[in-house]
Design brief:
heterodimer; A: 114 residues; mainly beta; seven-stranded mixed sheet; 11 strands; B: mainly beta; four-stranded antiparallel sheet; 12 strands; globular
Chain lengths: 114, 116
């Protein structure tokens, strides 16, 4: 596609439920990043993929958060047993390679936990 | 570890006036520096970046920024703003020598509001 695509754009879920957020990077981009944007914490790095491997998971806030990437393309961020503090906008970005300095961002998924 | 401080959370300005959005960073290593813009309900768009070379960097939409190593600053400027520049602006750094080469550390953001 022309840009980074994220789905759903909005998600409302009940506390305790699991959610999956999807990111389709720009075709051919090998590096993929997940960030979280919340009122109290600003923009925080969550995880970085190079191909299907995740050499840096240092930003995942707890073991309820996991992510995978398949075929060097689509990535899914999963949050288990959601809590109200997980409410945020989850942004995905991709770049041609980890050496490339321009990351392209998707429009984000707004997650609301009620 | 790196950190980024954007000194103003909100900057109101009148149309056609100049504006400066301030950014300071802290890092024990050389960094790459970026400014991103976020319009309402949209993702982030790269305005400009400093990697090396000339300390004055020009970006899109008439914005420019100057890297000052001694003051560890990377302030964003525009000589004459438009209503359409109303958005949130983020300063960010990355560590080119790190294992997560393109991983960005962001400042808290500055909301620029341009009034007619």
């Amino acid at each position: 596609g022309a840009g980074v695509s994220q789905s759903p754009s909005n998600k409302v879920t009940e506390k305790g439920k699991d959610v999956e957020l999807r990111c389709d990077p720009i075709s051919g981009h090998t590096a993929l990043y997940w960030y979280r944007q919340s009122l109290g914490q600003g923009l925080e790095f969550l995880i970085y993929f190079q191909g299907n491997s995740a050499p840096d998971k240092s930003g995942l806030p707890s073991d309820r958060f996991s992510a995978e990437r398949t075929g060097g393309s689509v990535s899914t961020l999963t949050i288990q047993r959601t809590q109200q503090e997980d409410s945020a906008v989850y942004l995905c970005a991709s770049s041609f390679s980890q050496m490339n300095t321009e990351a392209f961002f998707g429009q984000g998924t707004r997650l609301t936990v009620v | 570890a790196q950190s980024v401080t954007q000194l103003d959370s909100q900057v109101p300005v009148f149309e056609e006036a100049p504006v400066e959005l301030r950014c300071n960073y802290s890092s024990s290593v050389s960094v790459y520096l970026f400014w991103y813009v976020q319009y309402p309900n949209q993702g982030l768009q790269l305005l400009l970046k400093y990697l090396s070379g000339s300390t004055l960097v020009k970006g899109i939409n008439g914005f420019e920024a100057e890297f000052n190593k001694s003051q560890t600053s990377f302030h964003l400027r525009k000589p004459s703003v438009h209503i359409s520049d109303t958005a949130e602006y983020f300063c960010a750094v990355s560590d080119p020598g790190g294992t997560s080469y393109g991983k960005l550390t962001f400042g808290q953001g500055t909301i620029l509001t341009v009034h007619p």
